[in-house]
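WARN  no MSA supplied for this record, continuing single-sequence
INFO  ligand: nicotinamide-adenine-dinucleotide
INFO  echoing inputs
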Amino acid sequence: MTNPFENALRQLQGAARVGEFPGDLIEKLSRAEKEITVTIPVRMDDGTLRFFEGYRVQHCNWRGPYKGGIRFHPDADIDEVRALALWMTMKTAVSNIPMGGGKGGVVVDPKALSASELERLSRGFVRALWRDIGPQVDVPAPDVNTTPEIMAWMSDEYTKLSGDQTGATFTGKPVGQGGSEGRGTATGLGGFYVFDAVRERAGIEEGASIAIQGMGNVGGHAAEIFTAHGYKVVAMSDSKGGIYKEDGLDPKAVEKYKEEHRSLAGFPDAKEISNAELLELSVDVLVPAALENQITAENASRVSAKLILELANGPTTPEADEILHQRGIAVVPDILANAGGVIVSTLEWEQNLANEQWEEGKVLAKLKETLVPQADLIWQKATEKKIPLRVAAFMVALDRLASAQVQEG
Ligand code: NAD
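INFO  complex generated
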């Protein structure tokens, strides 16, 4: 299995070779400032006590508080969280928002827990961690398998323990409990804004065909947003597999079907496909929106899309990147394509600190005006220097981090 942290370091070093950056910058960014491992004891419904391992990696705070989601997953491990934290530092710098980079993870299969066990685990994670987080210190958010409800439990626990009443320590909370309008759809919508900004330059027609891997918060919303803008979403999938329909799926109907049947198998008039097949479909745009290491040296030569929009973090390995670049397939990197989530999270944090609640229109306008200029800048840099978009995005981030870097005496 490819180690995501090694991949993140290779990306960092790749950008460092192309640009000219101050001496210690890359060395400093190759490690996290602080890594915390905690044990979370949870009383299960049957009275037994179970222990879960959790992590928070605080990668870099030169540009603002550490910022990044918390993932609940049976395969979460410290290297994955390290990689995700490093990517967050790059993403907040690419977005030019006043945040740094961090990430959290708990090794658990949340589907195997009852709702009350999940609540005790979520609150337990905060009890183990609360002295290391806070509105000006580290601001977590949702990620894979964590929801607005989980953020509300965590935020409530933090308020009780710290006495801080701002609600600004966790973002992605439900609207009405300190959450921001627009946060739920922000990652998918931000991905669409980025796509829309580069579409013509990438030679993609309006109404093009799209395959989306993963239909959680990110992939599910992306499917609806692309469809609403006239694109044809021909394939969708979850962890068990996917479906394909040449004339396009109705994402809302697919989600409803999945809710009722807990699987996509048997969806009317669609062909069942595996996740591996989905990645190789003959489509204009491929949108990985699930997990890391999906497009690898093994399958990159068979990807037929003209453009890959990375809504997941780390879906393409460095080896695959090289193959795709040689084949002329544009990869819009995660640290740009999925930055909409952290941008609206930051707007939520600002609203909490100011004790305000903004209308959706205002939030989405700010999202667009933050993200689109960065997409233009990165496309331009990549074209001028004839480098992949990911390298250009890392270079933009590294320039901003270099200016913010604290010099040691
Ligand atoms: P989620 O838990 O809501 O959904 C994950 C989806 O991926 C589910 O549909 C699940 O069935 C599917 N999936 C899981 N394993 C899979 C596999 N092996 N193959 C195919 N599909 C699989 O998570 P999410 O919040 O939508 O996050 C998805 C990705 O987007 C992650 O890489 C995450 O880090 C990234 N991301 C999320 C946010 C956010 O705001 N939630 C922001 C930026 C990036």
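The domain at 186-337 is CATH 3.40.50.720 (Rossmann fold).
INFO  checksum written, moving to next record
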